[in-house]
Backbone:
C-alpha cells in the first residue's frame, strides 16, 4: 500500500509499514506522518519532490510515538 516502515541492517522488519511518509532516524528518532501529499517541484529538477503534512511526529527506534515538546 506504499507505506513506510523500518528494517534493521539485516533486513528484518523492526517497525511494520504504516506511515504515509517517514524520514530516516537521527539521534534515535524519526520524523513520520500518516497524512499529507507528495509535491513535485520541477523548477529544481524533473525528479525533485517532497512530502508536505500538518501532522508530523517523532517515533523511537521501537516505533513508540514520542511526546512533542
Residues:
Amino acid at each position: 500500500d506504499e507505506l513506510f516502515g523500518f528494517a534493521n541492517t539485516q533486513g528484518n522488519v523492526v517497525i511494520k509499514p504504516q506511515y504515509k511518509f517517514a524520514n530516516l532516524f537521527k539521534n534515535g528518532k524519526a520524523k513520520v506522518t500518516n497524512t499529507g501529499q507528495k509535491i513535485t517541484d520541477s523548477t529544481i529538477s524533473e525528479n525533485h519532490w517532497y512530502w508536505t503534512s500538518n501532522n508530523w511526529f517523532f517515533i523511537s527506534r521501537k516505533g513508540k510515538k514520542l511526546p512533542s515538546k
Notes: The chain has a mean pLDDT of 92. The radius of gyration is 13 Å. The beta strands are 4-7, 13-19, 21-22, 29-33, 37-40, 49-52, 57-60. The first strand starts at residue 4 and ends at 7.
